[in-house]
Every structure is written in C-alpha cells, then in structure tokens.
Amino acid sequence: MYFKTFLIKLIMTTAIIWIVLGGYYGANLLGVFIISIVLTVLGFIGDIFLMPRLGNILATIGDFILALGLVWLMGIYLFDPSVPVGRAAFIISLLLMVGEMYLHQYIKLHIWEPRIMNPRDKAGYYQRTDTQLEFARAFSKEDFQKK
C-alpha cells in the first residue's frame, strides 16, 4: 500500500512540475525529474510520519513550504537563469498543495484507517452484545386511562 501511495505522489508531483517548468518555462526534463524525485521522497516521509500527528491542514501547509523551498533552491542550480524559478516554485507549490489535500485523504483512508481495529473484530464482541436482553413492557392505551 505504501508503494502505490508513493507512486501516486510521484506521478502527481512529476506531472505538475513538468507542466509548469517544462511546458510553460521550457526547463530541461532531467532537472524536472531530479526535483520530482527529491520532493516526492521528502514529502512522502513527512506524510507517513508527520501527517498522523499534525493532521491534514498542517501537513498540507508543510508540503507547500517544502515544495516552495526545494523547487526554488534546486531550480537555481539546475535551470538556466532565464527561468523565473521563484515564480514557478510558487505556482508549483500551490498546485501541489491542492493535490496533497486529496492525497492525504487517500493516505488516511487506505493506510491509517485500516490499521485501526474495528471494535467488532475484537474477540468476544458478539458474545457480550448478543446476550443483552431488553426489559420493557409494552403499554397500551388502556394502561394510561384512569380506572
């Protein structure tokens, strides 16, 4: 399940960076792949270890800051000076932030929630609940009328 989530994150990150830097600003494909792999690995580690503690919103903000800083710093060294790396990093970070919100929901549903044991799966659950009796008396209209 971790590999599938990592693959989804890698494809999403590579597509967004390739569209913005490669398609719009004409950056080279090797630089796009290097940034995508580094950003995916660091972001995935943060998603697995920090997201359960911080929650979706703070993890998404952390992914925004990580993407902005990493794309900006790596872009300065990997691309020509003609590429406006700061502006591209901001656009990439915004788009990744939107995608990360959905990816975090996927992680929550497919990685974290299956680990939480359902109370019905515990041993003895049905023995405790199946033997409960209901003590009640059915009242009719005549019971409430004065005699």
Key phrases:
147 residues, mainly alpha, elongated
Descriptive account of the structure:
It holds the Pfam family DUF2512. Keywords: Membrane, Transmembrane, Transmembrane helix. This is DUF2512 family protein. The chain crosses the membrane at residues 7-25, 31-50, 57-79, 85-103. The chain is an all-alpha fold and 147 residues long. It has one domain (2-118). Helices cover 74% and strands 0% of the residues. It has seven helices and no strands. The chain has helices spanning 2-24, 29-49, 51-54, 56-78, 85-112, 125-130, 141-144. Helix 1 (2-24) packs antiparallel against helix 5, helix 2 runs antiparallel to helix 4 and helix 4 packs antiparallel against helix 5. It is elongated and about 95 Å long. It starts with a helix and ends with a helix. The mean pLDDT is 83.
Topology:
Elements: H1 2-24, H2 29-49, H3 51-54, H4 56-78, H5 85-112, H6 125-130, H7 141-144
Helix pairs in contact: 1-2, 1-5, 2-4, 4-5
Number of domains: 1
> Into which percentage range does the β-strand content fall?
under 5%
Overall pLDDT: 83
Provide the low-confidence segments as ranges. Answer: none
Task: List how many beta strands DSSP finds.
Answer: 0
Distance between the first and last residues' Cα: 70 Å
Rg from alpha-carbon coordinates: 26 Å
User: Helical segment tally?
Assistant: 7
Task: Give the helix level as a range of percent.
Answer: over 70%
* Main sheet summary: none
Shape label: elongated
Q: What structural class do the secondary elements suggest?
A: mainly alpha
| SSE order, one letter for each helix or strand | HHHHHHH
